[in-house]
Amino acid sequence: MNLITLIKIGWRNIWRNKKRSLVVILSIVLGLYGGLIISSLMITLNSQRMDTAINTYLADIQIHDKEFSKEYSLSDTISNIQYLEEKLKQDNRVKAYSKRVVINGMLSNSTGSYGVNVLGINPETEMKVTNVYTKIIKGDYFESERSNTMVVGKKLAEKLNLKLRSKVVIAFQNVNGDITSLLFRIEGIFKSGNGMFDDYNVFVKNSSIFSNIPDLKSYHEIPILTVDGGVTTNSLNESLKLDLQKINNTLDVKSWDEIAVELAYANQMLGSFLYIFMLIVLSGLSFGIINTMLMAILERKKEIGMLMSIGMTKIYIFLMICFETVFLSLVAIPFSLLITYITIDYYSVSGIDLSVVGSGLENFGVGTILYLKLPIEYYFNLSLLVILISSISSIFPAIRALKINPVEATKSI
Amino acid sequence: MIETENLKKTYKQGSLKVKAVDNVNLEISDGEFTAIVGPSGSGKTTLLNCIGGLDDPTSGNVIIDDEVISSYSSGQMIKFRLNNIGFVFQSYNLIPVLTAKENIEMVMLMQGYNKQDMDQRSSDLLSEVGMSNMSKRRPAELSGGQQQRVAVARALASKPKFILADEPTANLDSKSTAKLLDIMSKLNKQENITFVFSTHDQRVIDRARRVVTLEDGKIIKDIKK
Ligand SMILES: Nc1ncnc2c1ncn2[C@@H]1O[C@H](COP(=O)(O)OP(=O)(O)O)[C@@H](O)[C@H]1O
Ligand SMILES: [Mg+2]
Predict the structure, then answer these.
(1) What string of pLDDT tens digits covers the 225 residues of chain B?
(2) Domain that holds residue A91
(3) Which domain range does residue B46 map to?
(4) What's this model's pTM, rounded to 2 decimal places?
(5) Strands (E), A144-250
(6) Taking a C-beta distance cutoff of 8 angstroms, is the pair A407, B54 a contact?
(7) B77 touching A, CB under 8 A?
(8) Which residues are registered as beta bridge partners of A64?
(9) A165 and A147 co-located in one domain
(10) With a 6 A CB cut-off, is B202 part of the ligand 1 pocket?
(11) Residues lining ligand 2 (ion), CB within 5 A?
C-alpha cells in the first residue's frame, strides 16, 4: 500500500460532506487569522513603544560616568570628555551624538511641585539625536534668544497648569551639596507619544545651567545614534559599545535595552506570550476538529469495517483518518495566511487609528496610529502550530476508527 | 479447502443466549459454487463471518488448507484475509471516493503490486465483469448491479483462495441478479474460483451447484447437484 493512495482517499473524503468540512475549515481560518492579527497588534504596539523611547530619549547607546549611574549626583560628570568626543567623531559607526547635563530636581510653580528629570541640552546637536523637536504642540523648541527657557511635556504642563511663558522654579542639590533654585520660562510644550516620559522629563539649554552653576564642568550623559540603530540589537552596536568601554574604565557604556530594561524584557516576554495565547486558541479549535471527525467516522462505520475485512491493516486505517484530519487544517492555513498578509500589508501603510483609546496607549508609550507589522517567522511558526495541533487532534478520531469491528461490513442495517 | 469443525457461535442478547451457529461441520472443496441458504436469522452471515475470520467462533475451528485460522491473532488474520479471501458484501463494498478501477487496485496496492501489473490486472478484471467502459466512474455513478460486479472484481484482485459473498444479490433486481450470477458462474467454471455465497433468493439457489441449508444455526440439508 502506498501513502499516496491513503492521501488521495483522505483528501477526497474531506469533500464528501462539504458543508461540514467547510465549517471546520472556516473556523480554523478565523482562529489562525485572529491569532496572527492579535500577534501583529501586540508586536506593533511593543515595537512602536520601543521606537518612541529610542527616538525621544534613549538613542541607541548612552555613556555615563560609572558613579553617576549609581547616585545620579550632579558632580559625577563624564571625565576626559574631549578625548571621548574625538573618538566619537572619528568613528564611522556613529551617526550622531549629543551631550546632556542631567539634574534630578523639583519643578514648582504656584499650582504645585513635582519631581522631574531636567535634561540640559544643546538644541542643535540634540536635534540630530532625538526627535522631541518634532513633537512640539505649542510654542517652540529653543528658538528664543532668552537664556532660561524650558520645554516641558504636555502631561506635566496640564498638571501644573503651565502656559507658554509661565514661570517655574527648579530646585536641586548643587555640586557642593547646597540646594539651588533656578528660574525658567516655558517656551514649548511637547507630546512625545509616551505619557510617562512627558510627565517626568523637561528640557533646558545646557548653557543656562552652566552659567548658573559655575562649579559644574562637564556633562553627565552622551546619547549616541548609530548608523545601524533601531529596535533590533545588532553586532555593530555591540562592537561599538565594547570599543567605547575600552576608552576609559570610569565610563559606563550601555545600549538602550540595558538602560530601559523593562522595554527589552517586555519584548522578550511577548514572543512566548503570543505562542501560549495561540496554543490556547488553537486547542479550542481542535475540539471542533475532533468532533467533526468523530461524526464522519460514525457515518462511515460500514465502509471502515469493509476496509478492515478486505485486509487493510490498522496502521493504514489510522493514517487514513489522520491524513483526513490534518488536511482540514492544511486547506485552512493558506487562506489564513493570505488574508492576514493582505490585512497587515494594508495597515502597515495606512495605519490603524486608535485615537479612541489613544490616551491609554500614550501612557503606554505608543503613538495613536499603529502601523501593523508581523515578522515572517510568525506566519511560519503559527502555521506549524496549527499543523501540530491538528495532528494531535487526529489521534482521537483515528483511535476511534480502529475500534470499529470488521463485521460492521456485513450488518444489513 | 475450507473446513469447519464443530463450529459454534453464541451471542448473548440480554439474559438470552442465541446460538447463531450451532455445531456446524462443513467441508467445501476447491472449485465449488456453493450457496448457504436459510431464512433470515438462521445464521448464514455468522457462519460466513467465522469462515472469513471476521468474527471469532465461540468454539470449534475453521481450517483453511490445513491451517487453523480461528487461532490467528487479529494482525495475522488481517494479513490472511488480504491474501486469501475475497469478500463481497450486500452493500458498501466500495470506497465512494475512489473510481471503480482505483477500488480494485487498492487491494493490490496493499499487497505491494507494482504499478504496471496492477494496471494490467485491474483492467483485465474489469473486462471480466463487463465493466471496462466504466472504470473511471465512482460507485455513486454506478447502478447497484454494476457496483456488485466491481465488488466481485475487487474480491478477485488479490488472487484469493476463495470468495465469500454474503447475500450479494439482496439489493439487486432480477436482471442484475442474473447478470452477476452469470459472471460468478463463468469465473467459477473458467478460472476454477471457489465461491461460497449466502442467499434466500430461490433464483440464486437454483444456480448453485451445492446448497447447504441452515436452520437455527444448524445444517439441516446439504445437497450436491
Ligand atoms: N452481533 C450480534 N449480537 C447478538 N445477536 C446476533 C448478532 N449477530 C447475529 N445475531 C443473531 O444471530 C442469529 C443469526 O444471525 P445471522 O447470522 O445474521 O443470520 P442470517 O444472516 O441468516 O440472517 C440471529 O438470531 C441474530 O439475531
Ligand atoms: Mg445475513
Answers:
(1) 999 999 999 999 888 999 999 999 999 999 999 999 999 999 999 999 999 999 999 999 999 999 999 889 989 999 999 999 999 999 889 999 999 999 999 999 999 899 999 999 999 999 999 999 999 999 999 999 999 999 999 999 999 999 999 999 999 999 999 999 999 999 999 989 999 999 989 999 999 999 999 999 999 999 998
(2) 61-228
(3) 2-224
(4) 0.81
(5) 149-153, 167-173, 179-190, 201-205, 222-226
(6) yes
(7) no
(8) A252
(9) yes
(10) no
(11) B 45
